[in-house]
């Protein structure tokens, strides 16, 4: 089966009208959209999605931010898509993200307690399959 990754356009991206721009970059790179759905997160879903960050200082603000509006959940597919999307997304810190990347071109530091960095992308095959099962239980 082709490799899959979970991409989230976070509430800041949806609010700013950048959902289409993120989808455009995924498709322009040559990856396939296997699922696209506008969702509202829940505290329970985020606790599972962000289990590895529980207890970190930015965890509370992160969950609050992710509950602040709708999220566009996307499954993207293609050879190397997990690393490929992370390279399209750029560095976690939007100030450090290179121009040409989604965060480098479209996100900035707002001086808030959490990085409002527009997108999430799974970081390994294991987390991709785990996260896809959480956000798209029917896939
Ligand atoms: P994401 O890839 O969704 O995974 C965890 C998120 O936590 C990350 O994107 C950022 O939004 C946020 N984050 C990660 N590290 C930090 C940090 N050091 N300070 C604030 N927010 C962070």
Automatic annotation (TrEMBL):
Pfam families: NDK
Gene Ontology CC annotations of this record: cytoplasm
Domain of life: Bacteria
Catalytic activity: a 2'-deoxyribonucleoside 5'-diphosphate + ATP = a 2'-deoxyribonucleoside 5'-triphosphate + ADP; a ribonucleoside 5'-diphosphate + ATP = a ribonucleoside 5'-triphosphate + ADP
Subcellular location field: Cytoplasm
CDD domains: NDPk_I (cd04413)
Residues the entry annotates as binding ATP: 10, 58, 86, 92, 103, 117
Keywords: ATP-binding, Cytoplasm, Kinase, Magnesium, Metal-binding, Nucleotide metabolism, Nucleotide-binding, Phosphoprotein, Transferase
Domain Nucleoside diphosphate kinase-like: 2-139
Biological processes annotated in GO: CTP biosynthetic process; GTP biosynthetic process; UTP biosynthetic process
Chief site of localization: cytoplasm
Catalytic residues in the record: 120 (pros-phosphohistidine intermediate)
EC numbers for this chain: 2.7.4.6
Entry's Gene Ontology molecular function annotations: ATP binding; metal ion binding; nucleoside diphosphate kinase activity
Keyword RNA-binding tagged: no
Cofactor(s) listed: Mg(2+)
PANTHER family noted in UniProt: NUCLEOSIDE DIPHOSPHATE KINASE
NCBIfam families: PRK00668.1
Known partners and oligomeric status: Homotetramer.
HAMAP family referenced in this protein's UniProt entry, alphabetically: NDP_kinase
Family label: Belongs to the NDK family.
Role noted for this protein: Major role in the synthesis of nucleoside triphosphates other than ATP. The ATP gamma phosphate is transferred to the NDP beta phosphate via a ping-pong mechanism, using a phosphorylated active-site intermediate.
This protein's name: Nucleoside diphosphate kinase
